[in-house]
Design goal:
This protein is mainly β. The chain has one domain (3-68): ZPR1, zinc finger domain (N-terminal domain of TfIIb, Single Sheet), CATH 2.20.25. The chain contains one helix and four strands, in the order E-E-E-E-H. It has a four-stranded antiparallel β-sheet, covered by helices on one side. Strand 1 (3-8) and strand 2 form a beta hairpin. The longest helix has 11 residues, at 54-64. The radius of gyration is 14 Å and the shape is globular. The structure holds zinc ion. The site of zinc ion has 8 residues, from loops. Residues 9, 11-12, 14, 37, 39-40, 42 line the site of zinc ion.
């Protein structure tokens, strides 16, 4: 499940939500982030391999609990 945190548009300074999460593709852990400003439509999306960066991860853990982030035992395909 994705989580989100309030942030500000880097372009116009309006408040907006940055959404992020972790997912698995082909058994590999990936993370992603997505931001879109409602005011000026400036947006950014990004992703990467491996565990989600720390600031995001701690928020994910806070919202969903650590158990959501670790593959279940015997669940090899993520
Ligand atoms: Zn903006």
């Amino acid at each position: 499940m994705p989580a989100s945190m309030p942030t500000r548009c880097e372009d116009c300074g309006a408040e907006a939500l940055c959404t992020f999460g972790e997912s698995c593709h082909g058994g590999k852990l990936q993370w992603w982030e997505s931001f879109r400003c409602q005011e000026c439509e400036w947006g950014v999306e990004g992703d990467g391999l491996g565990s989600i960066p720390k600031p995001y991860r701690s928020l994910l853990v806070k919202e969903e609990g650590e158990w959501e982030l670790t593959p279940e035992e015997g669940h090899h395909n993520c």
